[in-house]
């Protein structure tokens, strides 16, 4: 897992720089800067909206006496999506928007759930019962 994270930290910024240079040559540097700011502002708005909606759903679940496990996982995905959207870059923005929209978040959640379960089964994650 550490290897994948290390590669992600090294490769993604290099790709982002390449895309910035390419996009700057294609549409101009000022448009690239505008798009970076626009995606940050739009991402913050969407994260707030989705986060508040998820919080309301979690409160509703708890009022019925049920554990809001699905909403907690949604909240984690929204938080990660918001943080990734605030970092400048088109690849990270794509990942962030995928984590913010419920329709695209659902398949990613199932993938993450399987990954976490596999890590727990292999003993890579310590958890308490």
UniProtKB/TrEMBL annotation:
InterPro entries: FxsA. PANTHER family: UPF0716 PROTEIN FXSA (PTHR35335). It comes from Paraliobacillus ryukyuensis. Pfam families: FxsA. Signal peptide: none annotated. Keywords: Membrane, Transmembrane, Transmembrane helix. GO terms for cellular component: membrane. This is UPF0716 protein FxsA. The chain crosses the membrane at residues 5-23, 29-47, 72-101.
């Amino acid at each position: 897992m550490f290897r994948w994270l290390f590669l992600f930290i090294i490769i993604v910024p290099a790709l982002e720089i390449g895309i910035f240079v390419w996009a700057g040559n294609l549409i101009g540097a000022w448009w690239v800067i505008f798009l970076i700011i626009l995606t940050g502002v739009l991402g913050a708005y969407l994260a707030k909206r989705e986060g508040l909606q998820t919080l309301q759903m979690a409160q509703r679940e708890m009022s019925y006496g049920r554990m809001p496990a699905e909403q907690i996982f949604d909240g984690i995905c929204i938080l990660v999506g918001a943080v990734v959207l605030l970092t400048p870059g088109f690849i990270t923005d794509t990942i962030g928007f995928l984590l913010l929209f419920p329709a695209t978040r659902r398949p990613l959640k199932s993938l993450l759930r399987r990954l976490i379960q596999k890590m727990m089964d292999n003993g890579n994650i310590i958890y308490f019962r």
